[in-house]
Amino acid sequence: MADTSLIVAGTFQERIFDKIKESIGDLMSEEDLKRLVEAALQDAFFKERVTKNYQFGSTSEVKPPVLVELVEKLLRERVRVAVDAWLATNQDKLAPLIQKMVDDGLCTMLRRILEDKTQQAMWLLGEHLKQALAGKL
How many domains is the chain partitioned into structurally? Predict the structure, then answer.
């Protein structure tokens, strides 16, 4: 008669542990093997990845952990859809904020342009005043 008992898949970590245990048998204690699998999964999914670039003058590239990249890829489209929906339903809240940013940005931009255009003339005026005051003393 065939065995019809239910087999529970277990977690990914447990399945890796069982597969390695079958392969290497008694070479490692069960506790050492658990620590090894846990450390490997921690490094594989949660540790930043550094890609060394061996070209002259180049630096290493640091990439986010694999888990962060996976979550970002899975959620990017959902977040974009949610933001688009919020923007579509909240135009009345958004318009004053955009106007304020434009107004503030425009004033800042005009102030910087005015400062840039008058900076040299103001410096020259200051130098002439210093010379004129120095000559009268």
Answer: 3
For residues 56 and 32, state if they share a domain.
Answer: no
DSSP at 38 = H
The pLDDT tens digits of the residues spanning 70-95 come to 888 888 888 889 988 988 888 888 88
Supply the pTM of this predicted model: 0.36
Nearest Cα to Cα of residue 45 among 20, 79, 12: 12
b/e per residue 78-109 (b: at least 16 CB within 10 A): eeeeeeeeeeeeeeeeeeeeeeeeeeeeeeee
- Measured distance CA(89)–CA(104) in Å, rounded: 25
> CB 5: neighbour CB atoms within 10 A?
4
User: What residues make up the domain containing 112?
Assistant: 90-137
